[in-house]
Amino acid sequence: MKLGFIFILFFAVTQMLSVKAINFTDKDSVSIKKGDVLSKTHKKNGVQMINRFDLFLDSINSIIPDTVPFYDWITNDIHFRKFDFSKVKDTLKIVLNDSNDHYTHPFNGKITSEFGKRRWRYHYGTDIDLNTGDSVLSAFNGRIRISTYSKTYGNVIVIRHDNGLETIYAHLSKRLVKIDSIITSGTAIGLGGNTGRSYGSHLHFEVRFFDEALDPRDIISFESCKLHYDTLAISQCNFIYREELKLMNAIKYHRVRSGNTLGHIAIKYGTSITKLCRLNGISRNSILRIGQRIRVR
Ligand SMILES: [Zn+2]
């Protein structure tokens, strides 16, 4: 039942991106609200260029089943994932820089951690060194979707940009903008800090599309604080890192050696005693035998 549903959804998404996107240039098929600036979308080499995501969504709404919130405006959940966008085969081009919008570097500082694999968990953003109190700027025009405190992100702002991308700014000492505020590229949205799961003041910066994390370096040169290109082509290539994730999450065992306790094993594999007990159907007080195989993931 569930699989079938996912298949239908996947099919619908594939269809809408390959077929319906073509209709997008037809302004009649797009409902334009009063006050809307007419989109400057155009086709280049047969690929649909997107710089007004709301209009793009309007144009594809009819194919999405009513029961599936497609790209809802959710202001209380940072990660609202609706489907695995990485499976979409088409390439979408997103306009990052044109007469309506431009990029502003959120903070010019040294990169202290890259997007990618960390010892036992994945790092979905780029860390930029700063001092508590430094201003953090919005990367593009957009609207504040989240302004909250989270245990892991600390004080965090999520901005939905006009081009459909979202950027996340975490560990702030202070949030300067409220949910629903419309802001422009370069607006100070918060002050840098060390809140949440953070060791030392820094900005954790993420770029997402449909809640799928992209390596910010796919878009930005952190050395020159500029975009690589004025457009971003999103395709499965941007999500190859998921293979690495799969490997990380694959089942893994530990062979018990002399002196091993559940506590040691938990630390070694970056997990908890509770999780080890659940995975192996044992209790905290179970005695481990030398040579015993303990599942750690
Ligand atoms: Zn980080």
Short description:
The protein is an alpha+beta fold.
Q: Which parts are unreliable, with pLDDT below 50 for 5 consecutive residues or more?
A: 13-51, 59-69
Helical stretch count?
A: 5
Overall SS class:
alpha+beta
The largest pleated sheet is described as:
8 strands, antiparallel
CATH topology of the largest domain: Glucose Permease (Domain IIA)
List of distinct ligands in this structure:
zinc ion
Morphology:
elongated
What is the architecture of the largest domain at the second tier of CATH? Answer: Distorted Sandwich
In terms of DSSP E residues, the strand content is 25-35%
How do the SSEs run, as a string of H and E? HEEHEEEEEEEEEEEEEEEEEHEHHE
Let me know the number of strands. 21
Integer count of domains: 3
CATH class of the largest domain: Mainly Beta
**Spatial gap, N to C terminus:** 28 Å
Within CATH, the superfamily of the largest domain carries the name Glucose Permease (Domain IIA)
Rg from alpha-carbon coordinates: 22 Å
Q: Averaging pLDDT over every residue, what do you get?
A: 79
Percent of residues in helical segments?
10-25%
Plain-language structure description:
This protein is α+β, with helices and mostly antiparallel strands and 297 residues long. It folds into three domains: 94 residues, no CATH class; 109 residues, Glucose Permease (Domain IIA) (Distorted Sandwich), CATH 2.70.70; 45 residues, Membrane-bound Lytic Murein Transglycosylase D, Chain A (Roll). The protein has five helices and 21 strands. Strands 4, 7, 9, 10, 11, 13, 15 and 16 form an eight-stranded antiparallel β-sheet that branches. A hairpin with a 3-residue loop joins β9 and β10. It starts with a helix and ends with a strand. Bound molecules: zinc ion. The site of zinc ion (ZN) has 5 residues, from loops.
